[in-house]
């Protein structure tokens, strides 16, 4: 009824039966040629029928009347019904009024005791519908925030994914923090408050984290403004494998390693050496605790572990020390995930209170250069076959299986991507020179097996 009144197309329907809900669901399922799926146990059993892209959930009425049943629901906007027989709206707790005022209000305070996850659901509905929480509902959630720890971790994770899936979820994430829920769910964030940084940041670790989250949402909504020539490639990446939402998770987690690695050197400069590596270890614990998939954990860890790389390349570029090999190695390591890393890097930089507008513009221009090098040159080359293989090195130079083969292939591949070698003959010749430079000239080559190609040393 909520979605019907708001003119939002619903794809699921909750139907309350005063008699045997299971038997009624069986009749409906038979009419569609479907089967009934039972969810839950005992009085809480829901009988689901999926038909024609619609989901119908049938349940038995709780209490003596439909009004009693509706008063057991979570929020007033979800506690409205429609009597199919009399064709009348049933609204015992003022859900229609709260829809008009765009308010999320608990039906009763007891609703949180029966299912503490409703605290997060309140913010999820507010985010998805563009509503606000009633003052008294916010107060009750704040008072009882500890209850959230009783909820199944996978359900908590699912609700957070839905909240973060909203384009402008930051204000709601801030309110979740203010209610005390965020640090109940992710206590690792608590030590970030008051963890001071250097003047460039201007914020403690927690506030910088929240600012980074806010900035990344701004960039995800308007990335074409920064990189118009690559917007299609970026869109393809962001719309794959939930990368948009996972980048928000990474923004929330990217500096979790800072409190543990914080130090002050002899010059009074605050440092966080190795915080990205420590952060990966913390991310692994959190994602496992929240029952995230291995794929999601791996992606978040990749962004957290590599979130300094773009800024390091940028600083090398400003000092005039960045070579084409530096960019090639970065691109080879991350491939399309450089998109996520570059977006994160810009949001991280924009979230530093002491960074100038000019410095941010310089970073945007640098990231354009990286995008151009990748999409226009390196990515097409990376999809082409390599010029030589390990077998070529064994045949031509009599090498044994060892680490040197991997090193040689990597250096030749970097030269191919950089345009220094273009043919197999040139690649073999370069490998021969590299062997001598590495002090392996004493290795006796095997007899050439490719028509004299390996005679080039």
Number of strands: 10
What is the straight-line distance between the termini?
A: 79 Å
Largest sheet: 4 strands, mixed
Based on the coordinates given, report the CATH architecture of the domain at 197-382.
Answer: Orthogonal Bundle
- Global outline: elongated
Placed side by side, the strands forming the largest sheet appear as 1-4-3-2
The number of helices is 24
Helix share, percent: 40-55%
Q: Which spans have pLDDT < 50 for at least 5 consecutive residues?
A: 440-452
Average pLDDT reading: 92
Look at the structure and give the CATH class of the domain at 197-382. Answer: Mainly Alpha
Structural class estimated from helices and strands: alpha/beta
Our Rg estimate from Cα atoms comes to 29 Å
Percent strand: 5-15%
What distinguishing features does this structure have?
8% strand, Hypothetical protein af1432, 457 residues, 10 strands, alpha/beta, two-stranded antiparallel ribbon, elongated
